[in-house]
Amino acid sequence: MREGSKSPYIGRFAPTPSGALHLGSLTAALASWLDARAVGGRWLLRIEDIDPPREMPGAKDGILRTLEALGLTWDGPVVKQSTQLAAYREQAFQFIQQGLAYACCCSRKQLSGFLVYPGTCRNARHAAQGAAIRLRVPDKTFAFVDRVQGAFSQRLADEVGDFVIWRKDGLAAYQLAVVLDDITQGVTDTVRGADLLDSTPRQLYLYQLLGKKPPRYLHIPLLVQQDGRKLGKSFRSEALTRAEPGQALVRALRALGQCPPRALQRQSVSQILQWAVSHWRVENIPRVRTLLEPVAD
To answer: What EC number(s) does the entry state (predicted)?
Structure first.
């Protein structure tokens, strides 16, 4: 159950199959898993495979096998976003019919140099077919209190502008897809990396338009390499192997401020996770946006 609530806890991990899991993605998965299991909640697994050009062959299966080797079992079937495209498209076009969104024909070249979308197509009344779809944003501040990062607010009109919910290439944009999926799956708590903190106000606006209650948010520090680059597939971060799961789990626990004893990494995966669940303390997570990756012993 969620703290201070009678609602059951439903969390989720939603990796993109653009490569193997690395320490950064494991840390996010482990934080989400522990936050759910510590209160007897459910933990769902969703594959965010709505961008085929970025997918790596075999990545989906590799992610599942790695999570299994690390003992991070999930509840229910694995959901793939690629099976939900019709629902995303229907909602995007419904927003147009409601006057809440519009077709945009701007190219990347036209928008280069703009930090905020300048509203070029806002009143152009372009045909929606073959165009991107942008959501009109209000001149309003959206604020929330993150469980780790604290108070965060953003004035969408000034800091983001009208944002894309359906891409010109006929694929759903992340902001719309993630909100619709979390609503469909009944997600009550979202635990993810701090690189997505800036996305949250846009998602809060979508929840408002859809008349749904948003989840609680917990954004963990983003792990970065010694040169300051984030751990990620694009920077060839070291992929996790299934050979030493204990060492990987203990490194992730250290990144989350949980202070596991040195000897723990020599225990079995189930023993490590049992210790981690019983010692899970959100208040120990470093309250920073970025954090140097912990080194292995």
So the answer is: 6.1.1.-
